[in-house]
Amino acid sequence: MQLPQINIPQKYIKAGAWVLGILAGILLVTGVIAYSKREALLKRMMASAINKADRDYGLEIKIAQAGFSGLSTVELKDISVVPKDRDTLSTVKELKIGVKLFPLIFGDVKLAEVIMHSGKVNIVLRDSLTNLDFFLKRKKKDNPDAKAKIELNEIAHDLLNQVLNKIPDDMEMKDFLFSLNDNDSAKVNLLTTTATIIDGDLLSTIKVNGDAATWHINGKLKPGKKQLDVLFFADNQKVELPYLENKLHAKLSFDTVRTEMKNAAYSGDDFKITGSWSVKNLLINHPKIAADDIVVSAARIDADMLIGKNYIALDSTSKVFLKNAVLQPYLKYTLSPDKIYEVKLHADEQDAQAVLDAFPQGLFESLDGLKVKGKVKYDLNFYLDSKNPDSLKFSSSLTPNGFKILKWGKTNLQKINETFIYTPYEYGKPMRDIVIGPSNPNFTPLGQISSNYKNALLTAEDPSFFSHKGFVEESIRKSFVINYKEKKFVRGGSTISMQLVKNVFLSRQKTLSRKAEEILIVWLIENNRLISKERMLEVYFNIIEMGKNIYGIGEASHQYFGKSPASLTIGEGIFLANIVPRPKIAMFKFNGDGSLKGYMLPYFKYMGRIMANRGLTPQDTSGYGFYNVRLREGLRQYLLPDSAKVDTTAFDNDTDAPVVMQDESKTLFDRLFGKSKKDTIAKQLNPQDTVKKSRRELRRERREQKKLEKQDE
After folding, report:
1. C-alpha–C-alpha distance, residues 178 and 120, integer Å
2. Could you give the CA distance from residue 197 to residue 265 in angstroms, rounded to a whole number?
3. What separation in angstroms does the CA of 457 have from each of 495, 569, 608?
4. How far apart are CA 135 and CA 144, in angstroms?
5. Which of 213, 268, 281, 636 is the most exposed place for a label (fewest CB within 10 A)?
6. Which range has the top average pLDDT, 241-250, 484-493, 558-567?
7. Alpha helices in 290-406 (DSSP H)
């Protein structure tokens, strides 16, 4: 089809030509004037920048020589940056910067060329001082818009554009040294012998600490399209970061790390960045993470990051790949008006062995070599509004389908179904071997343990033990709430199943990997019915710590009351359940005559009332056996006088000596043992101090009661 012809009057064509000619003339005249004045303009801009750096940051910047080289290239020589009263931060022998003219017309500075020779950045850390302190010293100015609402999406958009605009089309860098000196205990020297960008191709060679290693950062850069693909690797060895090992006692190494940005643009009101990050043979070692090296052979995340007006999120369209296993994460952090934390994890049903094999090597020591069949899927949901932490939401489920264990790994998870040897640890050292079986005279079968003790302990520690599958979501949820409110870890959500697994199957080292392994083993045992609930409880009762070098109900009942576990009264059962969380302070709960101290009575009434309401014991207004509990006479000689002031809060997993309340300025050693190393006798205090002690311990017991109340709800 032939398009119709449009006839434009000749006068309009002439008028348009005149307008364009005038504009071109104005631009030409402006350009000529600007070109003739560019040297003076450069000096004014440099003077302004130097004054601002001195005024706002306390930086002394010197430039020996500055001028134009070509139409749009600025050449600077002998540059130095020195923070006030600090070591020199940076020096550059020669620097050439070329900008693109067309974007400059619209006020957009984009680099066309960068040439740098013989540069240095030297970061010095001395105790609490550093030559980067100037970042914190910018003077605040009165600005009527200072309190204006800052939108994160705009900040992210502008910041990314500034970074990308500073990537030149062409770059040549030679002999650029980055040096970090940290109290002379950890030093890093990275010498970029050469780095070039030619038509978007990045190539670099970096010498690490002399000739200790050679690194490369190579890739393809397309800043105009908001795309980049960069690979980080070393010659003939892993990339290692010795600074972390020297400074943080952490090892980190890898073969390659690849970072890719595919796109960055607005999606509605959200600024969306799409890309991926992958690593090969990542090795991590830190005593808080795991006892041995953790190796991730291959991992990748395809990420969609969303930055909204008031939040940052990793969208649920993102995927994490660990070998052949796939996980979809969703993370969101809302900053205003209140901080909100959201975490969702979802894994579609997939091969269980593939999931097991995807776990990093060294993460689960006892499960190495485990073979399974079937499929599993996983979902986790966590939501916390800082304004209303009590409304926290938490759920976690690992759902099996045809799951079956084919072969045990390093540890047989059914070993406790038969007689076995249990070795308790104190401060990382084994105490003694205990036979959990009939050959041990202190071993007590479940049927020979008084129901008074069984009911009291289950009520206090794990009321739903026989109905749950290893975990109580509500207990874990409440633990999150309490710990968030306290801003520290004060309560765990462990069930008896979890405590049993921790003590029998795992090392005593407190690491994140051990906790993760504990959770997985509990799931394997409970969901596959590897051990009956009755046997789990029987073993738990016979290994639980109940005092200094006292393990199991058999030893405890004879130690404290001189009787068998079958003969324990309701009061004795409640007392023994009470000492489980902190067994080493059991003796400090008795008066000199062997009776229980008065602050224990509310706990007895509370626990007894719960048990009575559940039909586990008769109602007793006198205190559920409190007044009848008596420490056996043979132990009373070791009790401290009733007037002694002992800080039982000092007893924890690493401390088992009485702490005498004395001068707060004394050292821990002095507080533990008095004025001399041989003085272990508690200081006698007046009756008023004893009252203070009772009040303090009563407050602690009331906190325990509140914990039980919440569990009972």
Report:
1. 6
2. 25
3. 12, 13, 12
4. 23
5. 268
6. 558-567
7. 352-358
Average pLDDT of the residues in 360-365: 88
Bridge pairing between strands 434-436 and 251-254: unpaired
Question: Which one is predicted more confidently, 618 or 23?
Answer: 618
Query: What DSSP string describes 288-324?
Result: TT-SS-EEEEEEEEEEEEEE-SSEEEE-TT-EEEETT
Alpha-carbon distance of 357 to 359, in angstroms, equals 5
What's the DSSP call for residue 628? G
**What amino acid occupies position 622?**
S
Q: Is the peptide bond before 618 cis (omega within 30 degrees of 0)?
A: no
Identify the CATH number of the domain defined by range 415-644+684-712: 1.10.3810.10
d(CA 694, CA 648): 11
Beta carbons of 131 and 87 less than 8 angstroms apart: yes
Residue 326 structure tokens: 């796939």
Here the tokens at position 112 are 């066309």
pTM of the model: 0.79
The 8-class DSSP code of residue 250 comes to -
Q: Which of 4-13, 114-123, 384-393, 607-616 shows the lowest per-residue confidence on average (mean pLDDT)?
A: 4-13
DSSP 216-241: EEEEEEEGGGTEEEEEEEESSS-EE-
Residues 6+ away with beta carbon under 8 Å from 688: none
Q: Kindly indicate the confidence band of residue 643, based on its pLDDT and cuts at 50, 70 and 90.
A: confident
Name the residue type at position 142. Answer: D
Span 554-566, average pLDDT: 97
> What does residue 410 show for φ and ψ, rounded to 5 degrees?
-65, -30
Of 34-38, 186-190, 515-519, the one with minimum mean pLDDT is 34-38
Residue 445 pLDDT: 97
Q: What pLDDT does residue 237 have?
A: 92
Cα angle: 442, vertex 446, 452; to 5 degrees: 95
Return the amino acid letter for 246.
N
198 φψ region: left (φ > 0), alpha (ψ -120 to 50), beta (else):
beta
Q: Find the helix or strand (DSSP H, E) in which 192 lies.
A: strand 186-198
Which residue ranges make up each domain of the chain? 415-644+684-712
**Cα 498 versus chain centre, distance:** 22
**pLDDT given for residue 488 in this prediction:** 81
Residue recorded with tokens 């796109």: 263
Look at 244-253, 599-608, 679-688 and tell me which has the smallest mean pLDDT.
679-688
